[in-house]
Amino acid sequence: MRLSRTTLPHLPADVERPDYDSTAQRRGIVHLGLGAFHRAHQAAYTDRAMAAGDCDWAITGVSLRSPQVHDALAPQDGLYTLTERDASAERTRVIGAIRDVLVAPRDPAAVVSALAARDTHVVTLTITEKGYGRRPDGTLDPGVVNGGARTIYYYLRDAFAARRADGHTGLTLVSCDNLSANGAALHRSVAEFLDAATPDLRAWFEAECTCPSTMVDRIVPAVTGAERDALADRLGLSDEAAVFTEPFHQWVIEDRFAGPRPHWEAGGAQFVADVGPYETAKLRLLNGAHSALGYLGLARGLSFVHEAVADPAIRPLVERLMRVEAAPTIGAAVGQDLPAYIDALLRRFANPTLAHRLDQIATDGSQKIGPRWLERLASTRAQSVPCEATLQALAAWIVFVRGDRQPVSDPLANQLTAAWREAGEAGIVEALFAEGGLLAAPASLDRTRRATLTQMVQARVQGQESSR
Length: 468
Ligand code: CS2
What we know:
Blueprint: E1 27-32, H1 36-40, H2 42-51, E2 58-63, H3 68-73, E3 80-85, E4 90-95, E5 98-103, H4 108-116, E6 122-125, H5 142-146, H6 152-166, E7 172-175, H7 182-197, H8 202-208, E8 214-217, H9 225-235, E9 243-245, E10 250-254, E11 270-272, H10 276-299, H11 305-310, H12 315-326, H13 338-349, H14 358-361, H15 365-379, H16 388-400, H17 413-433, H18 447-466
Helix pairs in contact: 4-6, 10-12, 10-13, 10-15, 10-16, 12-16, 16-18, 17-18
Bound molecules: D-mannonic acid.
The site of D-mannonic acid has 10 residues, from helix 10 and helix 14.
């Protein structure tokens, strides 16, 4: 038997279920990128808001590529379970905030209609770093502007045109991806797209819409079939859209909405004037350490985050990266305690019940290392803040993208392998980071740092070869 509205009463008594009815509410939110992270984060905050009596924020979820999430959620009336767990406890509740699920390639017009509907006020996005289609310098990839592919920008543009024609109010676009200044980045990309494609809509967008920045945080590993089976045994019902996560969650949102917004504070969200310090700390400490654990751990043949953070060869390096190298580059907000934040991160990484795979974190590295490592390096170029641990992590990534140990899932995978083939271990750092290189990031890697990095890459390659 499958989880759905009619089977809800069959759930064990300790499973919390929605005491609100989202089918009786207006659809106020469209979410683009309906993955596990959204289901464990923004939808869970909306569920808390609804449980506290806030109405008319039912979510229309949009899968931008595959029908998989639609096919899992549709037979379940949009319901799914969220299980939070750590070594001491496990708690499952049913989330009822998602009302409809659309698959964009199947029905692009329905996506535009949802975005253009009068009751829609907020659009949230989890489309991953690469979903924004930006080049390393932050400008929009010309292929996105001219390529004719249906990206988020196409849907938004068509929806803006419809809203303007119908005299509807603007939208608040809330990026929930791990980009620096994600709101400003989204704003810039949408504006660039409109300028190139439909310049007369730019003024409407600027006057009517806002793109607040946000810091989103919750570790949500990809779900395995074995976890779904064990859950079905426990619940007596199967749930094809189940998500498993840690008890911790955080959402800090710039308080700059174009119109009404959900009372996400019911789930613990904080609305602030400036998200910058929270976002920088999260990207450079949590995500920066995560990627380091990913590449250093995979190089040592490990599979999970909790294994990598306990490894005596990796742990000191990652602690150093956070405490000595990244933390001094973060201007903390009042009340933000970075040493305590780092201690808490190390405890979260050690949670063995999450089984968070290193290869999940290692995907799309070319899109992630900028905000996690390179921007931090750039911010300390002229100072004497140390950077060896960050360079060690970067060296591990460079060797990883050679692709000889395991396949590399990255939008630049082909270019990275070609660069390796042409430049070899003595030249790869220059091919990537010298002026005009594939990932040349302004000011982050001067000649001295590139020389150190080249030595680290050569040492890793030699180490790898001699261990074969
Ligand atoms: C991770 C993030 O996969 C990754 O790159 O670093 O998804 C991380 O788990 C989240 O940002 C935590 O909030």
